[in-house]
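Box S1 | Example of a co-folding query
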Amino acid sequence: MTGYWRLVAISLRTAPAQVLGWALAVCALVTSSASAIGDKYAEQASRDAYAATYVGTQSSAALQGRGYNLETLGGILANELGYLTLIMLPLIGLHLAIRFTRSVEDTGRLDILTAGSVHRLAPAAAGLTAAALTAVLTFLLSAAALVTLDYPVAGSLRYAGSLAALMLAFTGIGALVAQCCRDARTSYVLAVACWMVSYLARAVVDARGVDLTWVNPESWLAEIRPFAAQPPLWPWLAVAATASVSFAAAAVVATRRDQGAGLVPPHPGPAAAPSWMTKPLHVLVRLTLGVCLGWTVGGSLFAFSFGYLTKQISVLSAISGATRSDNIDATVSLFVQMNALLAAAAAIQLTQWLAAEETSGRVGYALASPVSRRRWWGATAALVTAWSLVLLICMGVCTGLGLAAGFGDVGYLDDGVPATLAYTPAVLLLAVIALALQSVNPRVVTVTWLAVGWGIVVCLRADLLDLPEWARRLSPVHWVGAVPRDAWDRPAALVMTLLALALAAVAVLAFQRRDLRAG
Amino acid sequence: MHAIEAEALCKRFGRTQALDGLDLAVRQGEVHGFLGPNGAGKSTTIRALLGQITLDSGRARIFGLDCRRQSVQAHRRLTYVPGDVALWPGLSGGSCIDILGRLQGGLDPKRRDALVERFELDPTKRTRTYSKGNRQKVALVAALSVDADLYLFDEPTSGLDPLMEDVFQQCVRELKDAGRTVLLSSHILSEVEALCDRVSIVRRGAVVREGTLADLRSHTLTTVTAITGTAIARLADLDGIVDLTVEQQPDGVHTRFRVGRAALASAVGQVAAADPTALTVEPPSLDELFLTNYRTDTAVTEGTPA
Ligand SMILES: Nc1ncnc2c1ncn2[C@@H]1O[C@H](COP(=O)(O)OP(=O)(O)OP(=O)(O)O)[C@@H](O)[C@H]1O
Ligand SMILES: [Mg+2]
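Box S1 (continued) | Returned holo structure for adenosine-5'-triphosphate
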C-alpha cells in the first residue's frame, strides 16, 4: 500500500498522547488492582472464601461479567476488574478508531494527503494501525506489570491479551462505523450506541445465566478464562474473526464511498429555516437535538436494564447476611450513581460539541450579530444543564420502571426518580466545570472526562482499591452519599450548588474577556 | 463621525505581532478597500472591529461605539462575511441564511429570495455538500439580505466565478448608492479598482498607504515611451527619472523611462520638444502599484519612490 508507512508515522506523530495515554491508563488500573488484590487475598483460604460467595449465583455478573477460576488470584483480578474493563476497553477502542480515521477526514487533511502518491485505503489503514498499536501497548504493559507482581506468566499473558483483544474487536467495529457515517460526530453517536447494546445484552445474558456467551464480544473477555488450567481457544478465534470481518467490511465501505461522505448520500433539506428558530438557544437546540435524543434513549435503556436486574444482583449481598431491603437500596444507589455519571458524561459531550462550534469559527460568525457573549454563554449553559436534567429524570423514571418490572411490584415505580434527582447538584457541578473550562479555552474541555472516569472508579471500585477518603472525595458524586441507602447529604448538596453557581459566574466573565477562536 | 475609526491597534499572538499600530479610518458612505499581502493583519483587524479579540493597545470604534465594550450596539448596525466561511454541518444553506439573518435581527424575505435568485444558489443543499464558491454565496446572501449601515467583507469573492463576481460588484454598487458603508478586504485588484473610493494598504500589521486610488497612483511612476528622430536632450539630467533606456533602431531612437509625478510635466515637455513620431504615456498599472506597496524589501517613503 503506497504511502502506508509514511501515514503511520504522521498518525503517531500527531497524536502520541492518545496512543500511549490510553494504554498507560489501562495498565495503571490493572497494576493498582492487581497489587491490591494480591495483598487482600494473599492466603488461599481467603480466595476460597471469595470463590464460595460466588458459587451458584451469577447475580453480580450483570455488572462485572462472569467470574471464572475465582480460587486463583488472577481469577479474582479478572472478575473484579470486569466492572471497569467492560466499559473502558470497548469505548477506548471505538474512540481511537474514529479519532484516527473519521476525525482526520473531517479536518479535510485527507484531501491533501490522498492527492499525493498514496493508496486509497492507506490513510484509514495507517490510522487503524495507530489505534491497534494502543491495544498492543496495553497488552505489553499490562503483561509486564502482572508478571512483575508475581501473577502466573501464562495467565498474565492471556489476561493482558484478552484486554487487548476486547479493545481490538471494538476498534474494528469503530472502524466500520466510522466509514459508514457522514462525519465523526455521527460516528461517535452510533459507536456508543453499538457499545451500549453490546454491554446491556451481555448484562442480561450474564445475570440471567443464559447460554449465549458466544454472540457478543463483551462476553468473550470473561470466556477467555485466562487463568484456567485449560483455557478454551474459541474466544480468541471469535475476536480474530470479528476484528478481521469488521476491518474488511470497513475497507469495502471505504472503497465504495466518496471521500468526505458517508454511505448514505445526504438528501436535500428545507430551503428556509423553521420559523421557531430565531434565538441562539433555538439554534443550539436544533444542532444538538440528535445527540441529545441519542443520550436520552441510551441512558433510559441503561437505567431500565439495571433497574430490572437489581433483584438478581441484590441477592448476592443477601447471602452474606444483611437484610434484604438494605441490599436493594445499596444496589439501587450504585445504579443511580451510574445514572448521574452518565448524565454528567452527556453534559460533557454536549459541551465539547459546543466548544467545537467555536473552534470551527461558527461562534465568531454568529456573534458578529447583535448577540452578546453573555447571552450566547447563557444559551449554551441552559442547553447543557437542561439536557442533563431531562436525562436524569428520564433515567430516574426508567430505573423505577425497571425495578417494578424486575420485582413484579408497582410499589417500586417511584423509587427511581427521587434517588436519581438527589445527584442533581453533582451533575450540575460536573457540567459547570466542563462549561467553565470551555469558557477559558475550548480545547481543554476533554480534561473533564477524567472527573467522570474517576467518578466511575470511585463508584464501582473504591472498596477494592482501598481508596482513601480524600481520593473518593475527588468525585462530586461521592459527596452526595449513597442515596437511597444513606440519607441525602443536604449541606454537601448546597455546597455543590453554590460552587456550581460561583463557577458559572466566573466562567461568564472569562468567556466575555477572552479572544474568540478562529472565524 | 466616521463609520470605522481605529487608532494604533496592537495585537500580539504569541511571537507574531499581528497588528502593530494600525490606523484605519473609513468614512460613512464610502466603499473602502482593505488590501495587503497574506498575513498582513487584515482579518485580525476585522476581528478586532467585531470585538472578537481583545487588543493589547489601541482603540477601535464603529459609528462612535467602542468595538469591545459596546459590541452589541455596534453589531446592530453591521453585518459580516468572514474570510473562512464555516456553516453548520447538517443544515441546509437556506436554513443557515435564515439563522444568520434572524440572529442579526431579521432579514427581508423578499430581498433574500431575490439574492438567492441573483446568485443562482440552491438553498436546499446541505452545507457539507456545497462547493467552495457556493459556501461563499451563502455567506454573501446572508449578509446582503440584512439592511445594515456597515458591511464588513473579508475576501467576500474568493472562489466566486466571474459571473458571480459581477453580481457581487452590482450589489456593492447598490449599497453605495443607498449610502451604506463597505469595508472590503480583497486580493482581487480589479474588484478593488471597480468598487473602492479609498483604499488602505496594510503590511506587517500597520497601514503603509491610505487614500484614493488616484492618490496612490500619484506616488508611483508613469512609464513613458517615445520614438524620435534624434536623441532627446537633457533627459538624463532631470530629477526623478529612472530606468532610462535609449536604443538606436532603424525607425528612430527608442527612448523609455519611468518618471514620478513631480517631474512628469517637464519630462514630457522635453520629449515633445524632440518631435516624437510615437509617444505613449502609461499610468502605473494597478498590479504594479500594489506590488510596490506589498513588497517588504521596498522602502516605504512618501513622495517619489526611488
Ligand atoms: N489566533 C491566532 N493565533 C496566532 N497567530 C495568529 C492568529 N490569528 C492570526 N495570527 C497571525 O497574525 C498574522 C495576521 O493574520 P491575518 O489573518 O490577519 O492576515 P490577513 O491579512 O487576513 O492575511 P490573508 O490575506 O492571508 O487572509 C498572521 O501572521 C497570522 O499567522
Ligand atoms: Mg485574512
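The interface with chain A takes residues 47, 50, 52-54, 71-73, 75-76, 78-80, 82, 84-92, 94-100, 102-105, 123-126, 128-129, 152 of chain B (CB under 8 Å). The pocket of adenosine-5'-triphosphate (ligand 1) is lined by residues B 13-14, 16, 18, 36, 38-44, 83 (CB under 6 Å).
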